[in-house]
Every structure is written in structure tokens, then in C-alpha cells.
Design a protein that fits this description.
By secondary structure, the chain is an alpha/beta fold. It is built from 12 helices and 14 strands. Helix 1 packs antiparallel against helix 2 and helix 7 packs antiparallel against helix 9.
């Protein structure tokens, strides 16, 4: 039974945020720096202010709302998640964690509690990598793991660079040096997220306290051939980049199956150029996402993927492989894990420890500041889909654990 959080208010904020969506009725699509993203940011700002927070937008568009503590000299506890989405995704992935932070602030306000240590609620940009093809950007920029000088080279599918998109959004690339969050400026980071898997629902459990996050990498592969007319170029005279790409793609799923050890490999995006129905493709770009609990397993699969791509060169194609992201297996704070578990028990919730197969900003923050991550159930384990759903009562139970833990950490 929920002791603190208000499920109706949580639902109102989740639904209110989801109104700013490029594909209403067809899932949630909110690309970083899009008009919908600005509207969503303004909505979150208003909710933060209503909850008594002092709000600022940083150099790349992350939104911070501070509940000022009695001792402002103490580093604050940071809580939140991201508010961008995958195309045609769900309304809980990311926003659930942002709203959990805002709801926590409402609870402090309603109970008349002023924490000794300040609390910062954060709404982060471009976690999914859906627009710029580079995930976890906010947390990587905040921790200095993504150098700001690279941002002018990172472009979306339309060729618009991150810095150009920033300007259109109303941000100043000249201020990028201010985005780094010094370690001493954060006491700890907490994130609530939907599980995006079936375990909690299947086991009838309320929350999972994450103890570690898998190793993952994201590769971008290009296969180059030669364009030509579809009707006049003989089959034996073609260098069709899509044919070369398919030969590689057909190998990849088997690599993960053969290696086992809970490894997974996903090709989630394929771009064929020039994209004409009557033109032989001269370039194919595709992504490869590889994850496993053990780093050496991921590195083996990367090597095997590179070898498969190299075989396309033997067939006469030019190739290129870029590693956009590599994250080592991440252990989260054992102290925060203990606190979260204790409060779940005190709230009489059914909980478990869990390894996360998804990255989340917590993965990037964890080797920078003490970090905790809590999951709430996902109906049928579905995520990145319009069918993504978490009951608001279940979300409120997760917020209860976050609130009780932050209350203890800020006393």
C-alpha cells in the first residue's frame, strides 16, 4: 500500500508531459531539441516550480530543479532521468524517473520538510540517442566522458549538427564548457526507471533494486558499393552495397547465440542510400548494439562483428566501423542499494536485487558519484512501444522508496 506518493498526481504529470508528442495516437515521439521537446521542457519547469523548486536550464538543455536545503554548502542529492524518447515509444521510459523526482519534491513540500542537504531534480536530454545516434549524451557530458568539442561533429539524419540544433533550440554553444558537473557538486545520484522486462510482473514483486548494469557497446557500420541504374547494370557487373550489408547482417544474430553467456546483439537501424527504388545502393549504414554481463564477452562479439564486416571487404566492398559508445559493466553503490532495500522492506514491499540489461544514465553516473537505481514493473515486459505501461499505483510504490531514501540521505 502506498504510504506517501500520490498516484493521481503522478498520472496527471505523466499524461501532461505526454501531450508534447510528435506522433499522438501512435506512441510517444519526442526528439531532443524538437518543438515538442521545448514544450515538454517548459511543462516540466512549471511542475518543478509548483513543487517549490528553483529551476535552471544548463548549457545543453538539461533541466535542474533545486529544493534548497538548510545547508546550501552541502552537495545535493541528484534524482531524475531523461525526457527524450525513441520514435513511437512509450510514455513511461525516462519520464517515470523525472516525474518520480518531482513527486518527491511535492512530498517534501506537503510534509513541510526542509532537508539539510539540497535535492536537485534533473530532466536529461538525448539518453536514447534517437536523434543524434549517440546515447546517454546528457550524463556523458555532465561527467566529462563526452568532450564538448566533439558535439559539432555529431549530426542527426538530416545532417544537422548537435551544436546547430542547440542554437535553434535557443542555447549557446559558447557556453558548453559550463556543462560539466564537478564530482564535489553531487552527493549521490538516484534514478527510478520502468523495468522494461517481465520479471517483476511475473513474480508479483513491487520493485527491483539494481546492483549492477551490463557491459554494452554501440557500433556504426558502413558498407560502400557503387550506384547504378537498376535496369541497365548487369547483375555480374554490380557492387550493390545492400547485398554486401545483408551478407554481414545474416551472420550477426548467430554470433550472440553461439557465444551464450546472456549476450544479446541487435541491429536496430539500417539506412540505405541513395534510397531510390530504381537505383543500386552505393552505401548502407547500420547500427549494432551488443550487451552482456561480462566485458570480455562483449569484446569478443565486437571482434567477431569486425571480422564479419572485413569479409565484405574480401568481396570487394569498402567498409568502416565506428564505436560510438562503450560502457564497461557497472557496479552501483552498495550503500545506496542497502538503503533502498531497507526502505522497500519498511514499506512492506516485495523487492529483489537485479542486474540491469539496459544502460540508463545511472550507468554513466555510477563511476562518477555514488549511484542507485530502482525498477518498477512493466506490463508484459513491453517497452519502446506504444503498449509500454506501468500502473500508477506501482509507480507510486517506487516513488515511496525513492522519497524515503532521499529523506534519509538529506537529513
Amino acid at each position: 500500500m502506498t504510504n506517501f506518493a500520490n498516484p493521481d498526481r503522478i498520472q496527471s504529470m505523466i499524461d501532461g508531459l505526454d501531450a508534447f508528442n510528435a506522433t499522438p495516437g501512435e506512441g510517444t515521439t519526442r526528439a531532443t531539441f524538437s518543438p515538442e521537446f521545448r514544450q515538454a521542457s517548459d511543462y516540466l519547469r512549471a511542475q518543478m516550480e509548483k513543487a517549490g523548486l528553483v529551476v535552471r536550464e544548463d548549457a545543453v538543455g538539461n533541466l535542474f530543479g533545486r529544493l534548497v536545503g538548510r545547508d546550501p554548502a552541502l552537495a545535493p542529492v541528484l534524482v531524475g532521468s531523461h525526457f527524450d524518447s525513441v520514435p513511437h515509444g512509450g510514455k513511461f521510459d525516462g519520464p517515470a524517473g523525472v516525474i518520480a523526482g518531482i513527486e518527491t519534491a511535492f512530498l517534501f513540500q506537503e510534509l513541510g520538510i526542509t532537508p539539510t542537504r539540497s535535492i536537485d531534480v534533473i530532466a536529461m536530454i538525448e539518453e536514447e540517442g534517437s536523434r543524434f545516434g549517440s546515447g546517454l549524451m546528457a550524463s556523458r557530458l555532465l561527467t566529462g566522458k563526452l568532450p564538448t568539442q566533439q558535439l559539432s561533429q555529431i549530426k542527426d539524419a538530416a545532417g544537422i549538427s548537435f551544436t546547430e540544433a542547440m542554437r535553434s533550440y535557443g542555447l549557446d554553444p559558447e557556453q558548453l564548457d559550463n556543462v560539466l558537473l564537478p564530482k564535489e557538486a553531487v552527493h549521490a545520484f538516484l534514478e527510478l526507471h520502468i523495468e522494461q522486462g517481465p520479471v517483476l510482473e511475473a513474480q508479483g514483486e513491487d520493485v527491483a533494486i539494481v546492483d549492477s548494469i551490463v557491459c554494452l557497446t554501440q557500433l556504426r557500420v558502413r558498407i560502400y558499393g557503387a550506384a547504378g541504374h537498376a535496369g541497365t547494370t548487369p547483375m555480374n557487373a554490380r557492387r550493390d552495397a545492400l547485398v554486401g550489408a545483408v551478407a554481414v547482417l545474416s551472420e550477426l544474430p548467430g554470433l550472440a547465440k553461439d557465444i551464450g553467456q546472456n549476450a544479446v546483439l541487435t541491429v536496430g537501424k539500417v539506412d540505405v542510400k541513395p534510397g531510390g527504388a530504381n537505383v543500386i545502393p552505393d552505401e548502407v549504414e547500420f547500427t549494432v548494439d551488443i550487451r552482456a554481463p561480462e566485458e570480455d564477452v562483449v569484446r569478443q562479439l565486437v571482434a567477431q562483428t569486425r571480422a564479419a564486416v572485413a569479409r565484405a571487404e574480401d568481396a570487394g566492398f569498402r567498409t568502416d566501423v565506428v564505436e560510438d559508445l562503450f560502457a564497461q559493466p557497472t557496479m552501483l553503490s552498495s550503500e545506496i542499494h542497502t538503503r533502498l532495500t531497507k526502505h522497500a522492506d519498511q514499506l512492506q514491499l516485495k523487492s529483489r536485487s537485479m542486474v540491469s540489461g539496459a544502460g540508463h544514465d545511472a550507468m554513466i553516473m555510477a563511476d562518477y558519484v555514488p549511484t542507485g537505481l530502482i525498477f518498477v514493473p512493466s506490463r508484459n515486459g513491453v517497452s519502446h512501444s506504444p503498449d509500454e505501461w506501468t500502473d500508477y499505483d506501482q509507480l507510486a510504490r517506487g516513488v515511496d522508496v525513492i522519497f524515503a531514501t532521499i529523506r534519509e540521505m538529506t537529513e
